[in-house]
Amino acid sequence: MYTAIITDDNIIERDALFFHLSKIKNITVIASCNNGEETAALLQVQSADIVFSDIDMPRMNGIDLLKGISKPPVFIFISSFPEYAAESYNLDAIDYIIKPASFERVKKAVDKAIEYIEIKNNTKLYSEKFDPENQISEFGSRLSTDEFFFIKENNNYSKLNIQDITYIESMGDFSKIHINGQKKSVVLVSLKNIERQLSPKIFRRIHRQYIINLLQIGSVTNTEVQLLDKTIIPISSSYRQSLIESVVEGKLLKRFGD
After folding, report:
1. Separation of alpha carbons 11 and 4, rounded Å
2. What distance in Å separates the CA atoms of residue 173 and residue 161, rounded to the nearest whole number?
3. Where are the alpha helices (DSSP H) in the chain?
4. 110 pairs with which residues across the strands?
5. Which of 8, 15, 49, 140 has the most CB atoms in a 10 Å sphere around its CB?
6. How far apart are CA 71 and CA 75, in angstroms?
7. What's 30's DSSP letter?
8. What are the C-alpha distances in Å from 129 to residues 133, 150, 155, 190, 194?
9. What topology does CATH give the domain 148-251?
10. What's the CA gap between 109 and 209, in Å, rounded?
11. What span, in angstroms and rounded, lies between the C-alpha atoms of 94 and 111?
12. Measured between alpha carbons, how far is 79 from 76 in angstroms, rounded to an integer?
C-alpha cells in the first residue's frame, strides 16, 4: 500500500481528487492540505510516497513546495495552467495533469508513480544518482551507429536495436525505453542526457517527457503523434513546429505545376 497527500487550496478539487484516489486499491490518502506550507510542515513529521499538488496556491505554491524539500516524495502536479509544466519536469516531477482531472488520467499518473517507486526500492542500481559530469552513462558518448546501442541492466549489458525502439519516456532521474512487443527497459539516465547521446536523425524529442523514434511515426496532428503500433504520444506546440519543419516537410509529397 502506498500513501499519498493531496495539496490544493480548492476544497472541491481536493474532494474530487480524493474520490478518484479512493477507487485505486493500492493508494491511501493520509492527509488533505490547503497549501504548500501546510504540506511542508506535515512532511517534516509524516512521510508519504506521493504528493498530488496544485501549483497556483496562496502562501506557498506547488513549485516552491517541491523545491523546498531536500528528499521529496514523488510529486504529481495537478493544475489548470499548462504553462507550469516545463518547470515542473525540470524539478523531476513524475507527471503533470491538467484540470479537470479524470479518473483515467489520475490512474495513469498513479501507475507511473508506483512503477518509479518500485524500481527505486527494488533495484540497487537506481539508488545512485547519475551525474553526467563525473560519470560515464550507460550509453557512453554520442552514438556513432544508427543500428544499435547497449544499455546496462544490473550487471549485464543488453543490446537494443534502433529499429525496435518505439519511444523513450522520462521517469524523473531515469528513463524507460519502450520496445516493439510491449517490452520495456529502464536506465539510470535522464531523458535530457539520452537526447544528447542519440542520433537526432532517428530520435526526436516531442515533449518534455517523450523522445520518439522517427521511423515509428504513423501520423502527426496538432496535439499528438500516433506511432505505427497505435501508441499515442502527446506533442508540445514548440516541439511540433520543429518536427514539421525538419522532418515532415522534407518527406512531404508535394504538387508541382505542369
Report:
1. 17
2. 23
3. 11-22, 36-43, 62-67, 85-90, 103-122, 191-197, 237-243
4. none
5. 8
6. 11
7. E
8. 12, 20, 17, 10, 15
9. OB fold (Dihydrolipoamide Acetyltransferase, E2P) (2.40.50)
10. 13
11. 11
12. 10
Q: 227: Cβ–Cβ under 8 A, 6 or more apart, which residues? A: 166, 167, 212, 216, 217, 218, 233
Per the CB < 8 A criterion, the answer to whether 144 and 134 are in contact is: no
Tell me the CATH architecture of domain 2-122: 3-Layer(aba) Sandwich (3.40)
What secondary structure letter does DSSP report for 57?
A: -
pTM above 0.70, yes or no: no
Q: Which amino acid is at 223?
A: T
AA identity, residue 244: I
Which residue carries 504540506 as its cell? Answer: 39
Kindly report, as residue ranges, where domains of CATH 2.40.50.1020 are found in the chain.
148-251
Segments of the chain assigned to CATH 3.40.50.2300: 2-122
Can you give the pLDDT of all 258 residues of the chain as single tens digits?
A: 999 999 999 999 999 999 999 999 999 999 999 999 999 999 999 999 999 999 999 889 999 999 999 889 999 999 998 887 777 777 778 899 999 999 999 999 999 999 888 877 765 443 344 343 443 344 444 444 468 888 877 678 888 898 899 999 988 778 899 998 778 888 888 888 899 888 888 999 999 889 999 999 999 998 899 999 999 999 988 888 888 888 888 777 777 765
CA–CA dist 150, 144 (Å, integer): 12
Contacts of 245 (CB under 8 A, 6+ apart): none
Burial of 129 per CB tally in 10 Å (0-12, 13-18, 19+): exposed
